[in-house]
Queue: 3 jobs
Job 1
Amino acid sequence: MSIVEVRVPNVGESVAEVTLSQWLKPNGAFVKQDEPICEFESDKATLELPAEASGKLIHVAQEGDDLEIGALVAKIDTSVQAEDTSSPGPEQLTTSEAPNPTTESAPTTTAPSSYASGHPSPAAAKILREANIDPKEVQGSGKDGRITKEDALKAVANQKQTPTPEPSSSTPEPTPSTASDTVQQPFSRNERRKKMSRMRRTIAARLVSAKNQTAMLTTFNEIDMRGVIELRKKYQEQFVKKYGIKLGFMSIFAKACAKALMEMPDVNAFIEGNEIVYHDYVDISIAIATPTGLVVPPVRNVESLHFADIERKIKELADKARAGKLTIEEMQGGTFTITNGGVFGSLMSTPILNEPQSAILGMHAIKERPVVVDGQIVVRPMMYVALSYDHRIIDGATSVTFLVRIKELVEDPTKLLLDI
């Protein structure tokens, strides 16, 4: 018997441990070389582990296990061939095994073409579970018919578009609940426990580290968004026609931040030991919410990109993040972060630093408010902005000046276009 050991591969410089989130092939199944056998969840991404040889799969680790790089995951018995795992044909049956023609044969069931067929990925399973959708009702488009995250999102969208049928007059009245049911439902004492995902644990650890290891402080300001709104309204159609993508608020803020960061290098630096590391470029990490947690992939060299290039890159990263397809390389780096809680309705917040970076800008919801302009009370679309920064490297005067510079550039976007 020839056994091939399958171990956790090296998935990135900063990744020391992964979680076995799901087996894609059952124990004892015949697998082909390079066929995905399980899924790992690392700190930053989800990845599949291919079989290193063809043969019978023997599980060693269990779903939910935390495994170090190099740990044994499974074994493959290469002496077993595909036909060895199949059921014997009629010509292979002995006399004692042959079915009795006088006896009624038991009904047989046809095995599915693939174990993955109709089986959702972890991200897809979570989406379907939250939307109360049976995976059996979803057609999988992934490998071997597996239900991907995109399939789950489409199923949820279709469910929302499908109108709820009106109850017919023939529908029987619901049976009145008993007294005990009425009491138990609103006063439930049930508790549930669920293991935190690796990404959630990593996020938790980094947020606590940022609070404990930095001298974090937050300063606030407000921005009149009228100029940007009018700019987008006036040129949006021409912008889309020329570049094939809409001009959003994020690219304008990213470009404003890049300009201010190049002018104030302390905000674009970080502390490493007893040294300060300065960057002569601006890589802005964009906070993206996904079903498994918040990710912050960077858009690189924002100071040199056009608005359309920034919009395209943000869209590309967001699509990959929500589909769980970001690579380790796409998640690494960043010299500054922008997070936009306004898309969820947040009016004001104090964002937490994305270590080792020294500052993060928080955007918020745009609300019409009365403000005083030239001695007159007028109604303007206003946004609160927050800058959290590491006071060890960034002085209060620098942080306030930086945020005022952002306000100045966004309120008069012509300065961005003229680079003044």
Note: DSSP finds ten helices and 19 strands in the chain.
Job 2
Amino acid sequence: MDKDFDIIGLENGIVDLALQVDELPESGSAATLWNYLWQPGGNVDNAIAAAARQGSRCSFMGTVGNDVQGDFFRKDLIYHGIDTSHLLSKEGTTTIAVCLAEKKTQERSFLVYRGDEGSPDLEQEELDERFIAGTKYLHVGAASGKMMRAVVDMARKNEVIVSVDGASLSEDLEWTLDHCDIMIMSKQFYRQLFGEGSEDYVANMKRLSEERGIDTCIVTLGPDGCAGANRKGETFRIPAFSGFEIIDTTGAGDVFHGGFLFAHSQGWDLEKCARYASAVSFIKCTTLGGRVGIPDRRTVEQFLENGTIDLSGAEERRKHYSSVMRLE
């Protein structure tokens, strides 16, 4: 059966204000702001943008508020070639996240504003099963809204591959462990599942896959690389890439998901998929924000071949984002 899309993402829209500082100031003091950019964000949204940049046919399902941030979010999906036919604007406020990237520590911190009314959710009657059935993959995460379980059930009923962003363990994400095909988790999620101090990453991913019936399980470990296993018996443990300055790790895990889903759709083996996704994530981290540095397939393949990064596309996107949603 031919599918309309390769990947559909489910999430409520989020807009990021990315800020770059040397380090966070102590209470009552000040710090120099080196750079800032407005960019749409969100775990699933960044993943879908990354997959679209690799060449996947993508759509986004969810809601935004009927405000200027919601309009910006919608236009940005279109800018990245992502279908918006199932992105609904609702009365309310689009979530804003202030993302602080520290030069000194290469860490990031977040401040999140959801507005007085909170971010609007999809309702049961707004779900379109034919639309969901028309994709190869469905990608969801913690911010996918109250309809996540219903959408996942529709996807599995229609033999759609369900991918989950395991950022932090919650009741909904714990439920997905028994209802997904691909689980890619953060180190925080991993620790919540397996406890502090457990570094048997490959063995635990293999055990989780076998015990919960998940086709592919991966943990991303930031500067320590990633590890994973699948039900075919494939396993891997690969280090992180290095050699370029890390500007901002915001969205690093998100775009790993997008890169992995693209690679998985090509039928590549598990380690090749993870290595490709790691390259997408690493290249993204060389620029500010979760969106600007997402590379296209040509850039990723060039990096994997000879270790060089062509940042011309990122510079074009930086100029684009510098021209929209200015603070002035």
Note: The chain has one domain: 5-26+33-322.
Job 3
Amino acid sequence: MGIDKNYRILAVDDAKDTLMLLEFDLAEEGYDVYTADSGEQALSMIESQDIDLILLDMYMPGITGLELLTQLKQNPDYKNIPIIMLSASDDENQVVSALELGADDYVTKPYIAKVLLARMKTSLRLLEKTLELERLAKTDFLTKLSNKGGFEELAHKAVSQANRENQSLIMAMLDIDLFKHVNDTYGHEAGDVVLIEFAKRMRECFRDYDIVGRVGGEEFAICMPNISLDNAYNACERFRSLIEEQPISITQSCGKPHDLSITVSIGLIQGTSGQLEYEELLKQADVNLYEAKNSGRNTIKTSNGDQDISEIQEEQIVNTSDESQFPGIDMEIGVGNVLGDESLFKDIVHMFYEDHSKDGEKIKQAIEDSDQGACKHLVHTLKGVSCSVGAMNLFEHVKLLDVAINEHKTDEYLTLFSPVEHELALVMQGIEKALADRLS
């Protein structure tokens, strides 16, 4: 019986005939099989591929099986990969050593295919359960966002990456205004409905790769990698307006439906590239949140050294006069996505123009024709490429339309398409002008 998922298996053995046999037996069962004939080659492959399970020969020249096992189990990135040891020896001391070092199982060679496959399935089932338990432990049970621990782990990784790549990073703290009043007036069940809907809107409003978490009762946090303060502020402002303008439907304690209006206060902070610290960013974002609450709530407060957001926006408006800028495109994000290669970025923008300049017409036609498949393909593709070139306002608008299409909310298509059409035209006109200037 085949497997339900295309697991990636790495077989490591210095005997070429054993590798050929393993590759045949595992491929027949439906696994994606990778092979390595040395510990050194195996390490290189593990670093470049997402491996789900390793079959590891005990005795090899160079890095031995036990040495490789030790290295992998000591590395936090690889320690959860199940490892089944293979050996022609039945030395009990070696078996015990392997299991004590973290091996999941041990199979003697020549192996019996059915036995090996059964043990692999057992190890993979245990892996899935372990990963699911870890996911649940890091997920807020009510909102399904990352909980405080999960957010902290993901944000720490984002901060480390931003430091390595010398990129900017924004931390935001959000607090639902007067939430205690909601619980006291309408009950905790209504409060839970508000929290769930608030979290849902956060997922829809911010970028797919922004890290969003519930870090307290009515307190939430967002870690936004590779984004300018101006764009982060605009994204938070869109969310603040969305919360203010769209009431949440709740049921009162008497059973009567009620549309409840809420607001949110937000504190933002931008870290200095290469010198970011998670704890300090969170602390400063919290200080700015406190300022927002003290300023009357339903507002955003930010700081960036001695500059405020209005000064930063003025600077960016001045910078847009630079002929290297494309209206509607954040070059900091776009160039960052290609590791700082500005020439490559401009080539990609050119390709973006050639491939997607007619997307507005195509999407509109697909909506008019009620062609759900075409709508979904066009919008989902545009969402991905607009983010990759740094057209973040376009990305945000397309994302909302993409959500509506996925949920088959056909009555919202044209309404949500209107800002997409406008922003797409702005971006394409800017690219067209920039290309014309380059050729003149």
Note: Residues 305-324 have pLDDT under 50 and may be disordered.
